[in-house]
Design goal:
five-stranded antiparallel beta sheet; Beta-lactam/transpept; Ribosomal Protein L30, Chain: A; alpha+beta; Penicillin-binding protein 2a (Domain 2); 4 domains; 23 helices; Nuclear Transport Factor 2, Chain: A; 703 residues; five-stranded mixed beta sheet
């Protein structure tokens, strides 16, 4: 009985002793804060640690860690770990707070009974819960976590103190020693560009990437690199440059160049060669759409300075030319990012925050890729600019410049040799001619006629007698004169267009006067930017205000200081086909009710448009006409040729640019304008008309 009583007494003592050890809260009679001995209680340590963390005071956090933790981790290592993590994820607005009434106590456990006894008698363990929140580059992070406090007997002292038993899991739940917080960018897929029928003009694809595993090159490295240089069209120096990058290791794949799927077999058996699939921007129509679509390339240091605030970073691909550049911000989309915990092998353990990638906007153009290709094949050997427009809708069906370059060469890795070859080519394949304005020559004459007819300055049926091949208004012109090729009398509007009579149209312009002529030209949009997304040079009558009879006379037949883009000329001829209305030009297909149907309502009257349409049909149909080469059997092509002379002064020889502009009068579904440089000694504008004929025939086949 005494033994049982004594045993019961011992149990009571042990329980009471345990309560005393594990319950460190002050007694009701005690005030909050340090105990009577002055030592901080567990709650004070937890709050101090969380407050220091909230303030990013890592030194104060470290001061509260257990001595055993400090033996393995210096203060600078501790602070650097937090700072690197927060810097890497772009942490801002850090908030760390205790979760109220969440304190729990627990006995330290040990596999060894003696160790367990030692912890019970010497250490006390207490849990505290807290919440950490912050904004990051991947969005907000908010986690609830648990930390541990231990009460430790101080060395050479009977005093016991509370410390934070720190581990990586206190940074983020689930972290272990060796784990890392990893930030991974998720590239947004670039929007694609397709033609009116959905055929890809700039698409996302992939090609095999040939690479070298440096550690496998062996003793024959020089011969292997020389062989690869020959096959890939590069140099050993360039291969060595890539192999010498700071990140390269013997067992890593080092990209060298892209090859086609059909070429992989050619590299079979070459030591150290391996392949990976590489994402690639591809341009299926190559040169035919090069200047219109453009290409992408790695962002330059200069571009990065200007675009860094928009989220661009080193290594990003950006539009370098064409619509790829013009529509860059819409095509590129927004990259996503994932903040995660990964183990030492790089295997993801958990995701802390994630911002999904937003795909770039895709664009459908009004371009007909089949027609574009047919036109390019007609002029690819020439220095040319061509535009084709659907008259009743304003939709641009073709827009190209030649000679051209292959945009795929830029995305696959352009060699310096290839770039130098293009850059030094006197035909200038890198120059976008359709974006420029040129002297339109006689293709401008219908505009002169329209202005004169609508201002009643010209009677289209009046038969004029013009003596000789030269005309001077009066003595005030001195030695200056206007010259024509054919002396045809009498001459009316129809005959003037058939024989392209410069004097007739010079007189029409002078008879209209500077002010009326300038005002009439503005009705065609001359002096304005063409309202499409692609920047095209503005057309002009003169560099300043048009004044004086000589500049006015020269303007009448498209010389002097008159300049127009081929697109603008095509739009003017489309207006003749469209009863005088210039439809609003469209390069992209979209549902936007804010875009008006017309750009210039009644740029000329319906009567004038009908008169010009009839006369332009004669200018092509008449075998004596310079435009007859564009005639298509079974159709009624209305059009006008032009030869713009670029020379320092009258009486000298210079470059000649040949033009043809027109449409099928019976079925006006295509208004076409072609400009070809350097047609001197090739028949002038007669060199252009057969090409126009074949283009119309191709377009008619597609209907």
């Amino acid at each position: 009985m005494k033994i049982r009583a004594l045993t019961l007494l011992c149990i009571i003592v042990v329980i009471l002793s345990g309560c005393s050890l594990w319950n460190d809260k002050p007694s009701p009679s005690s005030s909050p804060g340090p105990t009577a001995s002055g030592a901080p209680v567990a709650e004070d340590i937890a709050k101090a640690y969380l407050t220091a963390w909230h303030n990013r005071d890592f030194a104060s956090m470290y001061a509260l860690l257990m001595p055993q933790v400090k033996e393995k981790l210096t203060e600078s290592q501790f602070a650097e770990r937090y700072e690197k993590i927060y810097a890497g994820i772009g942490a801002a607005n850090l908030g760390v707070a205790e979760i109220p009434q969440a304190t729990q106590t627990a006995e330290a456990s040990g596999s060894n009974k003696d160790e367990q006894k030692k912890r019970v008698t010497e250490n006390v363990v207490r849990a505290f819960e807290y919440r950490v929140s912050m904004d990051t580059i991947a969005g907000p992070i908010e986690v609830e976590n648990k930390g541990m406090l231990r009460k430790i007997q101080m060395q050479d002292s009977e005093e016991k103190k509370w410390f934070v038993d720190w581990s990586p899991a206190m940074i983020f739940p689930g972290m272990e020693e060796g784990d890392k917080v990893r930030v991974q960018a998720v590239a947004a897929e670039r929007g694609e560009i397709v033609d009116r029928n959905g055929v890809g003009l700039a698409v996302n694809g992939s090609e095999p990437q040939l690479g070298i595993i440096p550690g496998k090159l062996g003793d024959d490295a020089d011969n292997v690199k020389a062989m690869l240089a020959r096959k890939l069209g590069t140099t050993v120096k360039e291969i060595d440059r890539k192999l010498g990058a700071s990140w390269v290791k013997p067992d890593l794949f080092v990209p060298i160049g892209l090859v086609k799927e059909s070429e992989i077999a050619d590299y079979k058996g070459i030591p150290a060669v391996a392949f990976q699939e590489q994402s690639l921007r591809m341009y299926p129509f190559g040169k035919a759409t090069a200047h219109l679509i453009g290409y992408v390339g790695e962002i330059s240091a200069e571009q990065l300075k200007q675009m860094k605030e928009k989220g661009y970073k080193s290594g990003d691909l950006v539009g370098k030319a064409g619509l790829e550049q013009v529509l860059e911000e819409k095509l590129r989309g927004t990259d996503g990012v994932v903040v995660s915990i990964a183990d030492a092998r790089g295997v993801r353990k958990s995701v802390l925050a994630e911002k999904e990638a937003k795909q770039g906007e895709s664009f459908q153009l009004t371009i007909d890729s089949e027609l574009q290709t047919a036109i390019y094949n007609e002029v690819k050997e020439d220095e040319a600019s061509v535009a084709a427009v659907e008259p009743d809708t304003g939709e641009i069906m073709a827009l190209l410049s030649s000679p051209a370059y292959d945009p795929n060469a830029f995305t696959r890795g352009l060699s310096s040799f290839q770039y130098d070859e293009w850059n030094k080519d006197p035909r200038k394949p890198l120059l976008n001619r359709f974006a420029r304005a040129y002297a339109p020559g006689s293709s401008f004459k219908p505009i002169t006629a329209a202005i004169a007819l609508d201002t009643k300055s010209l009677d289209p049926t009046e038969k004029k007698q013009i003596a000789g091949l030269k005309w001077t208004k009066d003595a005030s012109w001195g030695n200056y004169y206007v010259k024509r090729v054919h002396e045809v009398n009498p001459v009316d509007l129809n005959k003037a267009l058939v024989y392209s009579d410069n004097i007739y149209f010079a007189q029409a312009a002078v008879g209209t006067g500077n002010d009326k002529f300038t005002d009439g030209a503005s009705k065609f949009g001359i002096g304005e930017e063409i309202p499409i997304v692609y920047p095209i040079a503005k057309s002009q009558l003169a560099k300043g205000k048009l004044s004086g009879d000589i500049p006015l006379a020269d303007s009448g037949y498209g010389q002097g200081q008159v300049t127009m883009s081929t697109l603008h000329v095509a739009l003017v001829y489309a207006a003749i086909a469209n009863a005088g209305n210039m439809t609003y030009p469209k390069l992209t297909l979209f549902d936007d009710t804010t875009v008006p149907a017309l750009w210039k309502e009644q740029a000329m009257s319906q009567t004038t448009a009908a008169t010009l349409k009839s006369a332009l049909v004669q200018a092509v149909a008449n075998p004596a006409g310079v435009g007859h080469g564009a005639a298509v059997q079974g159709s009624s092509i209305a059009g006008k040729t032009g030869t713009a002379e670029l020379k320092a002064s009258k009486g000298t020889k210079g470059q000649e640019n040949g033009w043809f502009a027109g449409f099928d009068a019976n079925a006006p579904k295509l208004a076409l304008a072609i400009m070809i440089e350097n047609v001197q000694d090739r028949g002038g504008s007669k060199y252009v008309t057969p090409k126009a004929k074949r283009i119309f025939e191709q377009a008619m086949k597609q209907r």
